[in-house]
Amino acid sequence: MDLKSVLSLVEVENVEYVDFRIVDLLGRQHHVTIPAYAVDEDTFTNGVAFDGSSLIGYKGIEESDMVALPDPSSAFLDPFVEAKTLNIVCNIYNPDGTPYARDPRGIALKAEAYLEQLGIATSAYFGPESEFFLFDHVRYASGPTGSFFHIDSEEAYWNTGKEGKNLGYKVANKGGYFPVQPTDSQADIRNEMCSLLTQAGLKVERHHHEVATAGQGEINFRFDTLTRTADNLLLFKYIVRNVAAKHGKTATFMPKPIVGDNGSGMHVHQSLFQGDTPLFYEKGGYANLSEMALHYIGGILYHAPALIALTNPSTNSFKRLVPGYEAPVNLVFSKGNRSAAVRIPVAAVTPKASRIEFRTPDSTANPYLAFAAMLMAGLDGIKRKLDPRELGYGPLDKNIYDLSPAEKTDIKSAPGSLSEALTALENDSDFLLEGDVFIREVIDAWIERKRSEIQQVERTVNPKEYELYYDL
Prior knowledge:
- By secondary structure, the chain is an alpha+beta fold.
- The protein has helices at 3-12, 41-46, 104-118, 187-199, 226-246, 291-302, 304-311, 317-320, 367-384, 418-427, 430-433, 440-458, 463-469, and strands spanning 17-23, 29-35, 48-51, 65-70, 76-77, 85-93, 123-135, 137-143, 146-152, 204-209, 216-221, 224-225, 250-252, 266-274, 277-278, 330-335, 340-344, 356-358.
- The protein has 2 domains: 3-92, Glutamine synthetase, N-terminal domain (Ubiquitin-like (UB roll)), CATH 3.10.20; 123-469, Glutamine synthetase/guanido kinase, catalytic domain (Creatine Kinase, Chain A, domain 2), CATH 3.30.590.
- Helices cover 31% and strands 22% of the residues.
- Strand 10 (204-209) and strand 11 (216-221) form a beta hairpin.
């Protein structure tokens, strides 16, 4: 959709408000709403002013004036606001008209421009599988006199003995893949989410209940170019959360909200194209992959410890990244093997669908930064011809979790904590700086923020510590 189409839509649909959206360093969206009668071509040329000092990772109060410049191609009608509202994603600019170097969306756009500049491909396509939970109730608190969290779901296995009206049909621990109704109690809600996603312009491919109990679900939407997919992922989370709220439920994309059951990941499918020609396919190669694809994998796995600081950027991420829960902590690649960090899908794959799947990430990532970083790692692998076979990253076509300790000796592992991942990023970030895609200031700000989060978690007294140590 171009500018003229947007202004025409406002008129034809009798839009009352236009909602302009930006994203902070961590990946949370923010918005400012303007009456439609005050929005014209000048709004798209001059942008919307806002205070950058009030957003995480932006500017200090002494230089806080910033401009949100709307991207008309991102416009969609908001299905949740009573007054008809058009939502538009914006890029961030300085008052002098230059792009703001810390803008996450701007970084994603620079990564795509760098790809074309190298002449390796014209497009990078990304397709995330973002899992989530729908709970009926959530309470949490953290303070000097106590800390706790409590969640509940009508379909959770722990409610089999719940008093009052109880119809059974609970989802067993790790038993949620993928039963029919009435055990799957949320099919209608996911249908509604899919309908609204389609209305907003996303191409939904399928949805289903996921492995965990207590309302874990997954909705897959069609891949797109890097920045557009990041836009779509934020739109996806917006629609999932608001439909859940409409039904009296709450949605979370936390990687590990339940102890002892599967967590929520965000497997990211990736491929490169030259025009309409897929560059990752070569008939007869390993899993029908081209040498370029293998080098891309080499870059992903070589830089994985640093990447994980951006793709799994929460302390909670590392409660999911443990062996035994289909969490890919092993830095190897394999065809059709879900225990590997990089999986090569082989079922019903055409040349144009030839792709690699990085299974480690989760949805606490800022998608603009995470996708841009993955592309930069893959491009570094292509430029340096990093062969994952020579570097000891496989292929390993076995269930890695069933290997003996001796067989696992040479398998490299993902960092065991956010702190380890941040240290890896400190030591390996030059590949992100190529083409001025990322700047050192952004990486330093990210590391500083995340170390602050680690410190907050480590200094908070945990209820488990009372269980372990109170009577010693």
